[in-house]
Amino acid sequence: MKREHMSHDNFSSSGSCSSSTKPQMWTCDADDELFAVLGYSVKPSDMADVAQKIEHLEQVMCSVEKDGLSQLASDTTHYNPSDLSSWLESMISGLNTTPDFDSGVNSSAQMVVDSDFGSDLTAIPGKAVYPNPREKPPSPAKKLKLSAPETESSESIVMVDSQENGIRLVHSLMACAEAVQKENFKLAEALVKNIGFLAVSQAGAMRKVATYFAEALARRIYRLYPTNQDSAFTDLLQMHFYETCPYLKFAHFTANQAILESFAGRDRVHVVDFSMKQGMQWPPLLQALALRPGGPPRFRLTAVGPPSTDNTDQLQEIGRKLGQLAESINVEFEYRGLVANSLADLNAALLDRREGETVAVNSIFDLHPLLARPGAIEAVLRVVTEVKPAIFTVVEQEANHNGSVFSDRFTEALHYYSTLFDSLESCGGGSDEDRVMSEIYLGRQICNVVACDGADRVERHETLAQWRRRLGAAGFEAVHIGSNAHKQVSMLLELFGGGDGYRVEEKHGCLMLGWHTRPLFATSAWRLAS
Amino acid sequence: MVRLRAVGEHGREDKNTSKTFCINDNIDVLIEILKRLDDKSIGVAACVCRLWCALTRNDALWEHLCFRQLSPPPEGVRTVVAALGGYRRLYTVCVKPVLTRLRKMKSGGEMWTRHEVELSLSLFCVDYYERLFLAGGGGGGGRIAGDAPPSSLMFLCKAVNV
To answer: In terms of Cα–Cα distance, which of A182, A137, A176 is closest to A160?
Structure first.
């Protein structure tokens, strides 16, 4: 691999160089950094040799394919992939028995190096091929199965997918977070570049998660903070998230069940919704109320939402549609939309509490952003108590992404979003477009947790236990979410077909939905403590 | 699957024996028979002739199909379901996937449980609301992908990887 210029800042954790001040890395005989990242021990002095042998090997394999000596081109085994030089020797000596070895340039396979290695390196002109084991090798000490690269494809195969790299990736991410925590930005920068290469070598959920975290770390290091999120676009992304996986449906169905039960026997009800978005939560509640024994109550909905960026009145539109639905199922419906920049701007008078009404307040992922400003959460909880709700349903992410230490936050977030992305990979709902949008939705959250700080960091998730303390301090007590909700949600999850991945747990009367052993979202219901 | 054959009126030239039974003359009997079929057979029956096609579109037939196994059919459901799009749509969009998928998981039990009914109705309502959104068009509210069908219930259509 030719190196035009090696920045002296780039030293890798595996390099044996004493200090980073030497301008030329190859004067000290350390393992090549990029190969080391991928698990191969190649000295810079061997580099030209290795490159030549790789070209050699490529030509031989091409010509072997053409001759139909396919058994040589297919599974070959070798030992100790970390010693690249001797491996190539063994490969070439093994193949050297073929007489028609063509040493000329084989122009039919024009290789293009797939990934961007950054400004420090340029690809060797011609064909540079990296070994591509099709299966994951169990460990480097065991045999490495190598199948022939597809000669008809004109892209280079760069992936070295091994468990080693996965572990290395996670360690690099943690190390980078530590470096950022200690404000050692030079080290962090080098690590972020490493992470970029490692992330590319992974597949599936791990790759996506690593890419998002790497980007967020880079933003933090280079201070390229993300601009203000457009709320309409976030709503759209959330719709796709609603369709792809059951988490939002879980939230809506459990909250609705709690609200429905608290409305039993009442004939005038009022729902205050902090999380209107597209209003997907309310049709099932309206339908359940329409069909309840004794007939539907008079239903009033007050929706609180942010100001819309385009000229349309989003809240009113949605209210109109819900009204249409309510009318067709014969439920008396009254609607009011309140536009507020932040929930903390509300006061109880605006919510217009009327005599004889049973009130329910609903918040889905809308309490945690309030933690970004001091005093906001207390103000909102005070407003809620003033409305005197029969039930206050709260759905939040079950994770602590609000710790004061950056590296702890980072680690928590890494585990949380890895699990979430894993579940996205496995569950089947929605189209491909939906899935991509859901990933972007989650990616934005990752960016916010890692890259932002202060008032900009709004994704301040806290665990159920933490919310319990806060709500307890504000004068609320927990209401048990009944078994009906649990059964309904279990059925819903069976329909989603994530295999056995999704788990519904009940904890102190609250329901938590998780993927395998990790709870991800928690629904809780509260009322004023007597 | 039950096989039915409509006996043509002009089968025989015997005009004397007007005892030839034609099912199309006895629609109430026909409906009774159709009520007992499963969904696939109803589909096949709809292809027989125009009369049968019209009869199979009758929502009452599908209502019977949906709630056949629930001993007292829930009250008031009819108006709601009619408003949200009818029993035939309820069956195709919600009931059938829910039943087939959940039956696979459970070993026995032919009866619908109350929860399954409620869940189907809730999902049906969500479906109606999404269609409302698309009908509302691109201007204001709604999703940007106006030409895609409501996909919130797509998970019901996808093959389950159990």
So the answer is: A137
Q: Which of A278, A492, A499 sits opposite B119 (nearest CB)?
A: A492
Tokens of A18: 């004493």
| B96: closest CA of chain A, how far (Å) | 12
Q: Which of A495, A496, A502, A504 to mutate to test the interface with B (most CBs of B within 10 A)?
A: A495
Candidates A238, A282, A329, partner chain B, best to mutate (most B CBs within 10 A): A329
User: CB B84 to CB A324 under 8 A?
Assistant: no
CB-defined contacts A:B, below 8 A: 123
List the single residue in B with minimal CA-CA distance to A331: B80
Closest-CA residue of chain B to A238: B143
Beta bridge partners of residue A319, listed in sequence order: none
Question: In the 8-state DSSP scheme, what is residue A3?
Answer: B
Sequence spans of domains, chain B: 71-138
Provide the mean pLDDT of chain B: 71
Q: Which residues of A touch B98 (CB under 8 A)?
A: 491, 495
Q: Each residue of A372-425: pLDDT tens digit?
A: 999 999 999 999 999 999 999 999 999 999 988 999 999 999 999 999 998 888
Angle (CA) A76-A79-A81 rounded to 5° is 95
Structure confidence by residue, pLDDT tens digits, A419-459: 999 888 887 566 788 888 999 999 999 999 999 888 888 89
Beta-bridged to residue A507, according to DSSP, are A510
How confident is the model over A471-524, as pLDDT tens digits? 999 999 999 998 889 988 888 888 776 667 888 999 989 999 999 889 999 999
Write the DSSP assignment of A434-468 as a string of letters: HHHHHHHHHHHHHHHHHH--GGG-------HHHHH
What pTM did the predictor assign? 0.71
Q: Does A330 touch chain B (CB under 8 A)?
A: yes
Nearest-angstrom CA–CA distance, A389 and A268: 13
Contact residues on chain B for A242, CB-CB shorter than 8 A: 152
How many CA atoms does the CB half-sphere of B33 hold within 13 Å? 17
Query: How many other CB atoms are there within 10 angstroms of residue A498's CB atom?
Result: 23
A428 contact B CB<8A: yes
The total of other beta-carbon atoms located within 10 Å of residue A422's CB is 18
Q: Are the Cβ atoms of A429 and B158 closer than 8 angstroms?
A: yes
Residue for token pair 């009204």: A323
Residues A69, A70, A73, A77, CA torsion sign? negative
Nearest CA in chain A to B141: A314
Contacts of A463 (CB under 8 A, 6+ apart): A398, A399, A400, A522
The string of DSSP codes covering B15-64 is: SS-TT---GGG-HHHHHHHHHTS-HHHHHHHHTT-HHHHHHHT-HHHHHH
B30-50 tens-digit pLDDT: 888 888 888 888 889 889 899
Mark which residues 261-300 of A lie under 8 Å from B by CB: 278-280, 283-284, 286-288, 290-291, 293, 295
When CB atoms are compared, the residue of A243, A321, A494 closest to B105 is A494
A501/A464 Cα distance (integer angstroms): 21
Q: Does A317 touch chain B (CB under 8 A)?
A: yes
